[in-house]
Task: inverse folding
Protein backbone atom coordinates (compact mmCIF):
# COMPACT_ATOMS: atom_id res chain seq x y z
CA UNK A 1 0.00 0.00 0.00
CA UNK A 2 1.24 3.49 -0.84
CA UNK A 3 0.97 5.94 2.03
CA UNK A 4 0.06 9.49 1.16
CA UNK A 5 0.29 11.44 4.40
CA UNK A 6 -0.83 14.79 5.72
CA UNK A 7 -0.43 16.11 9.28
CA UNK A 8 -2.74 18.57 11.02
CA UNK A 9 -1.77 20.05 14.36
CA UNK A 10 -3.98 22.33 16.43
CA UNK A 11 -2.16 24.38 19.05
CA UNK A 12 -3.02 27.17 21.40
CA UNK A 13 -3.38 29.91 18.78
CA UNK A 14 -4.19 28.16 15.53
CA UNK A 15 -4.05 25.26 13.10
CA UNK A 16 -0.83 23.96 11.58
CA UNK A 17 -1.08 21.73 8.54
CA UNK A 18 1.88 19.51 7.76
CA UNK A 19 3.99 21.06 10.55
CA UNK A 20 7.64 20.39 11.02
CA UNK A 21 9.15 18.75 14.09
CA UNK A 22 10.21 21.98 15.75
CA UNK A 23 8.41 21.19 19.02
CA UNK A 24 10.45 18.02 19.47
CA UNK A 25 13.61 19.83 18.40
CA UNK A 26 13.06 22.43 21.08
CA UNK A 27 12.34 19.76 23.68
CA UNK A 28 15.53 17.92 22.78
CA UNK A 29 17.56 21.14 22.78
CA UNK A 30 16.47 21.92 26.33
CA UNK A 31 19.26 21.87 28.92
CA UNK A 32 17.53 18.90 30.54
CA UNK A 33 16.03 16.24 28.28
CA UNK A 34 15.31 12.66 29.25
CA UNK A 35 15.00 10.21 26.36
CA UNK A 36 11.54 8.61 26.57
CA UNK A 37 11.47 7.62 22.91
CA UNK A 38 10.97 3.92 23.66
CA UNK A 39 7.35 4.88 24.27
CA UNK A 40 7.10 4.80 20.48
CA UNK A 41 7.97 1.10 20.41
CA UNK A 42 5.10 0.36 22.80
CA UNK A 43 2.67 2.48 20.80
CA UNK A 44 3.77 0.87 17.54
CA UNK A 45 2.71 -2.50 18.97
CA UNK A 46 -0.94 -1.43 18.91
CA UNK A 47 -1.11 0.65 15.72
CA UNK A 48 -3.67 -0.78 13.28
CA UNK A 49 -4.82 -3.41 15.82
CA UNK A 50 -7.90 -3.69 18.01
CA UNK A 51 -5.78 -2.21 20.84
CA UNK A 52 -5.14 0.98 18.89
CA UNK A 53 -7.27 3.15 21.22
CA UNK A 54 -4.97 4.37 24.01
CA UNK A 55 -5.93 6.68 26.91
CA UNK A 56 -3.04 7.94 29.05
CA UNK A 57 -4.00 9.89 32.19
CA UNK A 58 -1.36 11.55 34.35
CA UNK A 59 -1.31 14.35 36.89
CA UNK A 60 0.03 17.74 35.90
CA UNK A 61 3.80 18.07 35.72
CA UNK A 62 4.26 14.56 34.31
CA UNK A 63 5.13 15.32 30.67
CA UNK A 64 1.98 14.67 28.64
CA UNK A 65 2.75 17.47 26.19
CA UNK A 66 6.30 16.35 25.51
CA UNK A 67 5.09 12.82 24.82
CA UNK A 68 2.55 14.24 22.36
CA UNK A 69 5.26 16.30 20.64
CA UNK A 70 7.37 13.18 20.21
CA UNK A 71 4.56 11.03 18.83
CA UNK A 72 3.53 13.81 16.46
CA UNK A 73 7.07 14.17 15.13
CA UNK A 74 7.34 10.42 14.69
CA UNK A 75 4.08 9.72 12.84
CA UNK A 76 3.82 12.94 10.79
CA UNK A 77 4.87 12.93 7.16
CA UNK A 78 4.82 16.69 7.35
CA UNK A 79 8.48 16.40 8.32
CA UNK A 80 11.44 14.08 7.96
CA UNK A 81 12.32 13.08 11.52
CA UNK A 82 14.81 10.31 10.81
CA UNK A 83 17.91 12.34 11.67
CA UNK A 84 16.25 13.81 14.77
CA UNK A 85 15.29 10.40 16.13
CA UNK A 86 18.67 8.91 15.21
CA UNK A 87 19.98 10.45 18.44
CA UNK A 88 17.37 8.66 20.56
CA UNK A 89 16.99 5.10 21.84
CA UNK A 90 14.10 4.27 19.52
CA UNK A 91 16.38 4.49 16.47
CA UNK A 92 17.92 1.13 17.41
CA UNK A 93 14.57 -0.61 17.88
CA UNK A 94 13.34 -2.97 15.13
CA UNK A 95 10.03 -1.10 14.86
CA UNK A 96 11.63 2.30 14.25
CA UNK A 97 11.12 2.41 10.49
CA UNK A 98 7.69 0.82 10.55
CA UNK A 99 5.59 3.96 10.85
CA UNK A 100 8.19 6.74 10.76
CA UNK A 101 6.46 9.75 9.12
CA UNK A 102 3.83 7.55 7.47
CA UNK A 103 0.42 8.66 8.75
CA UNK A 104 -2.09 11.44 8.49
CA UNK A 105 -2.16 12.89 11.99
CA UNK A 106 -4.74 15.13 13.60
CA UNK A 107 -3.53 16.46 16.96
CA UNK A 108 -6.00 18.50 18.94
CA UNK A 109 -5.22 20.35 22.18
CA UNK A 110 -8.66 20.65 23.80
CA UNK A 111 -7.33 22.76 26.66
CA UNK A 112 -5.95 25.33 24.23
CA UNK A 113 -9.44 25.92 22.83
CA UNK A 114 -10.94 26.00 26.29
CA UNK A 115 -8.36 28.55 27.45
CA UNK A 116 -8.94 30.69 24.37
CA UNK A 117 -12.74 30.66 24.24
CA UNK A 118 -13.73 29.99 27.86
CA UNK A 119 -16.35 27.77 29.51
CA UNK A 120 -19.38 29.45 27.93
CA UNK A 121 -18.43 28.74 24.30
CA UNK A 122 -19.16 25.54 22.43
CA UNK A 123 -15.86 25.35 20.57
CA UNK A 124 -16.48 21.95 18.93
CA UNK A 125 -17.87 23.67 15.79
CA UNK A 126 -14.85 26.01 15.81
CA UNK A 127 -12.13 23.39 15.72
CA UNK A 128 -14.25 21.23 13.41
CA UNK A 129 -14.45 24.08 10.88
CA UNK A 130 -10.72 24.78 11.07
CA UNK A 131 -9.80 21.15 10.47
CA UNK A 132 -12.46 20.69 7.79
CA UNK A 133 -11.22 23.68 5.80
CA UNK A 134 -7.69 22.25 5.78
CA UNK A 135 -8.97 18.83 4.72
CA UNK A 136 -10.98 20.34 1.87
CA UNK A 137 -7.84 22.12 0.70
CA UNK A 138 -5.57 19.08 0.96
CA UNK A 139 -8.00 16.51 -0.44
CA UNK A 140 -9.68 18.35 -3.35
CA UNK A 141 -10.60 15.03 -4.96
CA UNK A 142 -12.87 14.20 -2.01
CA UNK A 143 -16.38 15.67 -1.94
CA UNK A 144 -16.47 17.31 1.50
CA UNK A 145 -19.32 19.74 2.13
CA UNK A 146 -18.88 22.99 4.06
CA UNK A 147 -20.92 21.68 6.99
CA UNK A 148 -19.48 18.15 7.12
CA UNK A 149 -18.69 16.89 10.69
CA UNK A 150 -15.08 15.94 11.27
CA UNK A 151 -15.90 12.25 11.44
CA UNK A 152 -17.71 12.55 8.10
CA UNK A 153 -14.66 14.21 6.57
CA UNK A 154 -12.38 11.38 7.64
CA UNK A 155 -14.87 8.74 6.47
CA UNK A 156 -15.03 10.27 3.00
CA UNK A 157 -11.27 10.67 2.75
CA UNK A 158 -10.72 7.06 3.73
CA UNK A 159 -13.43 5.83 1.37
CA UNK A 160 -11.83 7.68 -1.52
CA UNK A 161 -8.11 7.35 -0.78
CA UNK A 162 -7.83 4.51 1.78
CA UNK A 163 -5.61 6.79 3.84
CA UNK A 164 -5.70 6.24 7.60
CA UNK A 165 -5.27 8.76 10.40
CA UNK A 166 -3.53 8.98 13.75
CA UNK A 167 -5.61 11.08 16.16
CA UNK A 168 -3.85 12.68 19.14
CA UNK A 169 -6.26 14.34 21.57
CA UNK A 170 -4.54 16.18 24.42
CA UNK A 171 -6.36 17.16 27.65
CA UNK A 172 -9.48 15.38 26.44
CA UNK A 173 -11.01 15.68 29.94
CA UNK A 174 -10.80 19.46 30.38
CA UNK A 175 -14.56 19.92 29.96
CA UNK A 176 -15.13 17.27 32.62
CA UNK A 177 -12.73 18.91 35.07
CA UNK A 178 -14.05 22.41 34.47
CA UNK A 179 -17.71 21.33 34.83
CA UNK A 180 -19.03 23.31 31.85
CA UNK A 181 -22.72 23.83 31.05
CA UNK A 182 -24.67 20.74 30.02
CA UNK A 183 -25.32 21.83 26.37
CA UNK A 184 -21.59 22.43 25.80
CA UNK A 185 -20.70 19.12 27.42
CA UNK A 186 -23.28 17.27 25.30
CA UNK A 187 -21.84 18.81 22.14
CA UNK A 188 -18.39 17.55 23.15
CA UNK A 189 -19.76 14.09 23.97
CA UNK A 190 -21.36 13.95 20.54
CA UNK A 191 -17.98 14.77 19.00
CA UNK A 192 -16.25 12.00 20.99
CA UNK A 193 -18.98 9.55 20.07
CA UNK A 194 -18.69 10.35 16.36
CA UNK A 195 -14.91 9.96 16.41
CA UNK A 196 -14.40 6.91 18.59
CA UNK A 197 -17.68 5.01 18.66
CA UNK A 198 -18.32 4.94 14.94
CA UNK A 199 -18.08 1.69 13.01
CA UNK A 200 -18.06 3.56 9.73
CA UNK A 201 -14.98 5.51 10.81
CA UNK A 202 -13.16 2.70 12.61
CA UNK A 203 -11.16 1.56 9.59
CA UNK A 204 -9.88 5.07 9.02
CA UNK A 205 -8.28 5.27 12.49
CA UNK A 206 -4.84 3.66 12.67
CA UNK A 207 -4.27 5.00 16.20
CA UNK A 208 -6.13 7.16 18.72
CA UNK A 209 -3.94 8.48 21.54
CA UNK A 210 -5.75 10.65 24.09
CA UNK A 211 -4.40 12.17 27.27
CA UNK A 212 -5.86 13.82 30.35
CA UNK A 213 -5.58 14.09 34.09
CA UNK A 214 -8.58 11.89 34.81
CA UNK A 215 -9.24 8.45 33.35
CA UNK A 216 -12.31 7.95 31.19
CA UNK A 217 -15.42 9.24 32.96
CA UNK A 218 -17.58 6.24 33.72
CA UNK A 219 -21.03 7.77 34.03
CA UNK A 220 -21.35 9.76 30.80
CA UNK A 221 -18.24 9.44 28.66
CA UNK A 222 -17.55 5.74 29.13
CA UNK A 223 -20.13 4.71 26.54
CA UNK A 224 -18.30 6.98 24.13
CA UNK A 225 -14.77 5.91 25.03
CA UNK A 226 -15.06 2.33 26.26
CA UNK A 227 -12.97 1.21 23.29
CA UNK A 228 -9.91 2.73 24.98
CA UNK A 229 -7.32 0.86 27.02
CA UNK A 230 -6.40 3.04 30.00
CA UNK A 231 -2.98 3.78 31.48
CA UNK A 232 -3.32 5.76 34.70
CA UNK A 233 -1.56 6.84 37.91
CA UNK A 234 -3.17 3.76 39.49
CA UNK A 235 -1.69 1.39 36.93
CA UNK A 236 0.01 1.93 33.59
CA UNK A 237 1.04 -1.56 32.53
CA UNK A 238 3.67 -1.55 29.78
CA UNK A 239 3.72 2.25 29.73
CA UNK A 240 4.70 2.60 33.41
CA UNK A 241 8.32 3.64 32.85
CA UNK A 242 7.12 6.53 30.69
CA UNK A 243 4.81 8.07 33.33
CA UNK A 244 7.55 10.11 35.01
CA UNK A 245 11.30 10.01 35.58
CA UNK A 246 12.67 6.72 36.87
CA UNK A 247 15.17 6.48 39.73
CA UNK A 248 17.94 5.61 37.29
CA UNK A 249 17.16 8.65 35.14
CA UNK A 250 17.08 11.00 38.15
CA UNK A 251 20.31 9.57 39.51
CA UNK A 252 21.98 10.31 36.17
CA UNK A 253 20.60 13.86 36.08
CA UNK A 254 21.77 14.54 39.63
CA UNK A 255 25.25 13.31 38.82
CA UNK A 256 25.44 15.43 35.67
CA UNK A 257 24.16 18.56 37.39
CA UNK A 258 25.75 18.33 40.83
CA UNK A 259 22.53 17.71 42.74
CA UNK A 260 22.18 15.51 45.83
CA UNK A 261 20.28 12.42 44.66
CA UNK A 262 19.20 11.35 48.15
CA UNK A 263 17.79 14.79 48.83
CA UNK A 264 15.91 14.73 45.50
CA UNK A 265 14.57 11.35 46.48
CA UNK A 266 13.17 12.71 49.72
CA UNK A 267 11.54 15.68 48.01
CA UNK A 268 10.22 14.28 44.71
CA UNK A 269 10.13 10.47 44.80
CA UNK A 270 7.44 8.22 46.23
CA UNK A 271 5.20 7.40 43.29
CA UNK A 272 5.13 3.70 42.55
CA UNK A 273 3.70 2.91 39.13
CA UNK A 274 3.48 -0.84 38.70
CA UNK A 275 6.57 -1.33 40.83
CA UNK A 276 8.60 1.38 39.09
CA UNK A 277 9.98 4.10 41.35
CA UNK A 278 8.69 7.30 39.75
CA UNK A 279 9.68 10.94 40.24
CA UNK A 280 7.86 14.15 39.42
CA UNK A 281 9.61 15.35 36.19
CA UNK A 282 8.66 19.02 36.49
CA UNK A 283 10.06 19.30 40.00
CA UNK A 284 13.31 17.54 39.08
CA UNK A 285 13.83 19.88 36.12
CA UNK A 286 12.98 22.93 38.24
CA UNK A 287 15.41 21.86 40.96
CA UNK A 288 18.21 21.47 38.43
CA UNK A 289 17.39 24.78 36.73
CA UNK A 290 17.33 26.70 40.01
CA UNK A 291 20.08 24.76 41.72
CA UNK A 292 17.78 24.46 44.73
CA UNK A 293 15.87 21.49 46.11
CA UNK A 294 12.57 22.87 47.37
CA UNK A 295 8.85 22.74 46.65
CA UNK A 296 7.87 23.75 43.12
CA UNK A 297 4.32 22.39 43.37
CA UNK A 298 2.67 25.79 43.88
CA UNK A 299 4.07 26.98 40.55
CA UNK A 300 1.85 24.50 38.70
CA UNK A 301 -1.15 24.06 40.98
CA UNK A 302 -2.93 25.50 44.00
CA UNK A 303 -3.39 23.70 47.29
CA UNK A 304 -7.01 24.91 47.16
CA UNK A 305 -7.70 21.97 44.84
CA UNK A 306 -6.58 19.64 47.62
CA UNK A 307 -8.24 21.59 50.43
CA UNK A 308 -11.71 21.43 48.89
CA UNK A 309 -11.70 17.63 48.92
CA UNK A 310 -10.01 16.71 52.21
CA UNK A 311 -12.66 18.81 53.95
CA UNK A 312 -15.48 16.63 52.61
CA UNK A 313 -17.53 15.07 55.36
CA UNK A 314 -17.10 11.39 54.57
CA UNK A 315 -16.85 8.80 57.31
CA UNK A 316 -13.21 8.06 58.16
CA UNK A 317 -11.60 10.69 55.94
CA UNK A 318 -10.37 12.82 58.87
CA UNK A 319 -8.63 9.91 60.61
CA UNK A 320 -7.08 8.65 57.36
CA UNK A 321 -5.72 12.08 56.46
CA UNK A 322 -4.11 12.31 59.90
CA UNK A 323 -2.54 8.89 59.39
CA UNK A 324 -1.12 9.82 55.99
CA UNK A 325 0.26 13.17 57.14
CA UNK A 326 2.07 11.21 59.83
CA UNK A 327 3.67 9.08 57.12
CA UNK A 328 1.23 6.17 57.25
CA UNK A 329 -0.72 4.38 54.54
CA UNK A 330 -4.46 3.73 54.33
CA UNK A 331 -6.56 1.25 52.42
CA UNK A 332 -8.37 2.59 49.35
CA UNK A 333 -10.76 1.08 46.83
CA UNK A 334 -9.85 2.72 43.52
CA UNK A 335 -12.60 0.95 41.59
CA UNK A 336 -15.61 2.87 42.89
CA UNK A 337 -14.68 6.35 41.64
CA UNK A 338 -16.57 7.37 38.49
CA UNK A 339 -13.78 9.75 37.41
CA UNK A 340 -16.00 12.82 37.62
CA UNK A 341 -15.77 16.10 39.53
CA UNK A 342 -19.24 15.81 41.03
CA UNK A 343 -20.02 12.21 42.01
CA UNK A 344 -17.94 11.80 45.16
CA UNK A 345 -19.74 9.23 47.29
CA UNK A 346 -17.06 8.10 49.77
CA UNK A 347 -13.55 8.77 51.02
CA UNK A 348 -12.37 6.13 48.52
CA UNK A 349 -13.61 8.34 45.68
CA UNK A 350 -11.85 11.37 47.15
CA UNK A 351 -8.56 9.54 47.66
CA UNK A 352 -8.69 7.99 44.17
CA UNK A 353 -9.24 11.43 42.66
CA UNK A 354 -6.25 12.76 44.62
CA UNK A 355 -4.14 9.86 43.34
CA UNK A 356 -4.89 10.94 39.78
CA UNK A 357 -3.97 14.53 40.68
CA UNK A 358 -0.66 13.40 42.20
CA UNK A 359 -1.48 14.48 45.76
CA UNK A 360 -1.43 10.82 46.77
CA UNK A 361 0.48 7.81 45.49
CA UNK A 362 -0.93 4.31 45.14
CA UNK A 363 0.58 0.92 45.95
CA UNK A 364 -1.14 -1.60 43.72
CA UNK A 365 0.12 -4.61 45.68
CA UNK A 366 -1.23 -3.49 49.06
CA UNK A 367 -4.12 -1.43 47.61
CA UNK A 368 -3.13 1.49 49.81
CA UNK A 369 -2.54 5.19 49.25
CA UNK A 370 -0.08 7.54 50.90
CA UNK A 371 1.55 10.96 50.60
CA UNK A 372 4.54 10.33 48.32
CA UNK A 373 7.18 12.86 49.34
CA UNK A 374 8.08 16.04 51.20
CA UNK A 375 7.06 18.39 48.39
CA UNK A 376 3.53 17.02 48.35
CA UNK A 377 3.36 16.72 52.15
CA UNK A 378 4.03 20.46 52.37
CA UNK A 379 0.94 21.02 50.23
CA UNK A 380 -1.14 18.86 52.56
CA UNK A 381 -0.02 20.93 55.55
CA UNK A 382 -0.95 24.15 53.73
CA UNK A 383 -4.35 22.74 52.81
CA UNK A 384 -5.39 21.85 56.39
CA UNK A 385 -3.67 24.72 58.18
CA UNK A 386 -6.77 26.90 58.57
CA UNK A 387 -9.33 24.13 59.07
CA UNK A 388 -10.91 23.74 62.55
CA UNK A 389 -11.26 20.01 61.85
CA UNK A 390 -7.49 19.66 61.66
CA UNK A 391 -6.55 22.08 64.44
CA UNK A 392 -5.27 19.23 66.59
CA UNK A 393 -3.06 17.98 63.78
CA UNK A 394 -1.55 21.42 63.28
CA UNK A 395 -0.88 21.74 67.02
CA UNK A 396 1.06 18.47 66.84
CA UNK A 397 2.97 19.56 63.76
CA UNK A 398 3.93 22.81 65.45
CA UNK A 399 4.95 21.01 68.65
CA UNK A 400 6.88 18.25 66.90
CA UNK A 401 10.15 20.20 66.75
CA UNK A 402 10.25 20.37 70.54
CA UNK A 403 9.46 16.65 70.78
CA UNK A 404 12.39 15.80 68.52
CA UNK A 405 14.69 17.98 70.58
CA UNK A 406 13.41 16.46 73.84
CA UNK A 407 14.12 12.98 72.49
CA UNK A 408 17.61 13.93 71.36
CA UNK A 409 18.28 15.42 74.81
CA UNK A 410 17.07 12.30 76.59
CA UNK A 411 14.16 14.06 78.31
CA UNK A 412 11.92 10.98 78.64
CA UNK A 413 9.29 12.75 80.77
CA UNK A 414 8.76 15.46 78.14
CA UNK A 415 8.55 12.80 75.43
CA UNK A 416 5.92 10.83 77.34
CA UNK A 417 3.88 13.98 77.96
CA UNK A 418 4.04 14.98 74.29
CA UNK A 419 2.88 11.51 73.20
CA UNK A 420 -0.05 11.69 75.64
CA UNK A 421 -1.17 14.95 74.07
CA UNK A 422 -0.69 13.54 70.58
CA UNK A 423 -2.85 10.53 71.30
CA UNK A 424 -5.60 12.71 72.73
CA UNK A 425 -5.56 15.02 69.70
CA UNK A 426 -5.55 12.32 67.04
CA UNK A 427 -7.62 9.43 68.32
CA UNK A 428 -11.32 9.06 68.93
CA UNK A 429 -12.83 6.58 71.37
CA UNK A 430 -13.21 3.90 68.72
CA UNK A 431 -9.58 3.75 67.57
CA UNK A 432 -7.72 4.97 70.66
CA UNK A 433 -6.44 1.50 71.48
CA UNK A 434 -5.82 0.44 67.87
CA UNK A 435 -2.23 -0.72 67.37
CA UNK A 436 -1.92 0.75 63.88
CA UNK A 437 -3.18 4.09 65.18
CA UNK A 438 -0.58 3.95 67.98
CA UNK A 439 2.23 3.81 65.42
CA UNK A 440 0.60 6.51 63.26
CA UNK A 441 0.34 8.83 66.26
CA UNK A 442 4.04 8.35 67.03
CA UNK A 443 4.98 9.25 63.45
CA UNK A 444 2.69 12.29 63.37
CA UNK A 445 3.96 13.51 66.74
CA UNK A 446 7.48 13.33 65.27
CA UNK A 447 6.42 15.17 62.09
CA UNK A 448 9.33 17.62 62.31
CA UNK A 449 11.75 14.69 62.17
CA UNK A 450 10.95 14.37 58.44
CA UNK A 451 13.07 17.49 57.89
CA UNK A 452 16.17 15.82 59.32
CA UNK A 453 15.55 12.08 59.23
CA UNK A 454 14.59 9.30 56.89
CA UNK A 455 11.80 7.57 58.84
CA UNK A 456 11.35 3.84 58.32
CA UNK A 457 8.56 1.85 59.91
CA UNK A 458 8.75 -1.90 60.49
CA UNK A 459 12.45 -2.11 59.59
CA UNK A 460 13.95 -5.63 59.65
CA UNK A 461 16.76 -5.37 62.17
CA UNK A 462 18.93 -7.92 63.93
CA UNK A 463 16.66 -10.72 65.15
CA UNK A 464 13.36 -8.91 64.66
CA UNK A 465 11.60 -5.88 63.24
CA UNK A 466 12.05 -2.42 64.72
CA UNK A 467 8.81 -0.42 64.98
CA UNK A 468 10.23 2.96 63.95
CA UNK A 469 13.78 3.84 62.90
CA UNK A 470 14.89 7.42 62.20
CA UNK A 471 18.13 7.73 60.23
CA UNK A 472 19.55 11.27 60.07
CA UNK A 473 20.53 12.78 56.75
CA UNK A 474 21.95 15.92 58.36
CA UNK A 475 25.11 15.83 60.51
CA UNK A 476 25.54 15.97 64.27
CA UNK A 477 22.22 14.49 65.39
CA UNK A 478 21.63 10.96 66.72
CA UNK A 479 19.78 8.16 64.96
CA UNK A 480 16.71 6.85 66.80
CA UNK A 481 15.34 3.34 67.19
CA UNK A 482 11.86 3.42 68.75
CA UNK A 483 10.14 0.31 70.06
CA UNK A 484 6.47 0.49 71.00
CA UNK A 485 4.68 -1.63 73.59
CA UNK A 486 1.11 -1.77 74.87
CA UNK A 487 0.15 -2.77 78.42
CA UNK A 488 3.71 -3.86 79.22
CA UNK A 489 6.53 -1.50 80.21
CA UNK A 490 8.88 0.93 78.57
CA UNK A 491 11.80 -1.04 79.97
CA UNK A 492 10.53 -4.16 78.18
CA UNK A 493 10.62 -2.20 74.94
CA UNK A 494 14.19 -1.11 75.62
CA UNK A 495 15.25 -4.65 76.48
CA UNK A 496 13.81 -5.90 73.20
CA UNK A 497 15.87 -3.35 71.25
CA UNK A 498 19.01 -4.60 72.95
CA UNK A 499 18.34 -8.35 72.92
CA UNK A 500 17.15 -8.46 69.33
CA UNK A 501 20.11 -6.31 68.27
CA UNK A 502 18.04 -3.73 66.39
CA UNK A 503 21.13 -1.55 66.27
CA UNK A 504 22.58 -3.92 63.66
CA UNK A 505 20.19 -2.38 61.12
CA UNK A 506 22.38 0.72 61.29
CA UNK A 507 25.74 -1.02 61.14
CA UNK A 508 26.91 1.38 58.39
CA UNK A 509 25.88 4.37 60.48
CA UNK A 510 28.73 5.77 62.56
CA UNK A 511 27.08 8.51 64.61
CA UNK A 512 25.32 8.54 67.96
CA UNK A 513 22.37 6.20 68.42
CA UNK A 514 19.44 6.49 70.85
CA UNK A 515 17.23 3.59 71.91
CA UNK A 516 13.72 4.80 72.77
CA UNK A 517 11.32 2.48 74.56
CA UNK A 518 7.66 3.58 74.71
CA UNK A 519 4.79 1.84 76.49
CA UNK A 520 1.13 2.77 76.27
CA UNK A 521 -1.27 1.68 79.03
CA UNK A 522 -4.80 1.19 77.73
CA UNK A 523 -6.36 1.59 81.18
CA UNK A 524 -4.67 4.83 82.16
CA UNK A 525 -4.32 6.01 78.55
CA UNK A 526 -0.84 7.20 79.34
CA UNK A 527 2.56 6.72 77.73
CA UNK A 528 5.80 6.12 79.55
CA UNK A 529 9.20 6.44 77.95
CA UNK A 530 12.82 5.50 78.56
CA UNK A 531 15.76 6.68 76.46
CA UNK A 532 19.21 5.14 76.37
CA UNK A 533 22.26 6.30 74.47
CA UNK A 534 24.13 3.55 72.64
CA UNK A 535 27.78 4.04 71.79
CA UNK A 536 28.92 1.95 68.85
Result:
Amino acid sequence: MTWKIKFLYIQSMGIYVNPNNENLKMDMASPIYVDKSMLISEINRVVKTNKRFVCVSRSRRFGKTMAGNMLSAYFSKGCDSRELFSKLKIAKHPSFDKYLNKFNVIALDVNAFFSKYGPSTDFVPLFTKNIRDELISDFPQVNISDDEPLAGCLEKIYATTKEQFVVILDEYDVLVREKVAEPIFKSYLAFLNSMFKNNNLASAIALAYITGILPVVRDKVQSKLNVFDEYTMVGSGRLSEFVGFTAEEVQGLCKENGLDFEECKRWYDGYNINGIETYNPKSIVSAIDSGKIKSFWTQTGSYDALQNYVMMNFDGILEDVKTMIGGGRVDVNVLSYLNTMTDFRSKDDVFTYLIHLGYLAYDEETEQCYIPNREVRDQWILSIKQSPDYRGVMELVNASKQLVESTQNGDFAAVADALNKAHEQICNNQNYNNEGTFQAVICLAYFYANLKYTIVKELPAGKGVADVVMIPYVPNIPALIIELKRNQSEKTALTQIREKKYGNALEKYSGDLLFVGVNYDEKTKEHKCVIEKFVK
About this structure: The chain has a mean pLDDT of 87. The longest helix spans residues 391-408. The chain has 22 helices and 18 strands. The radius of gyration is 27 Å.
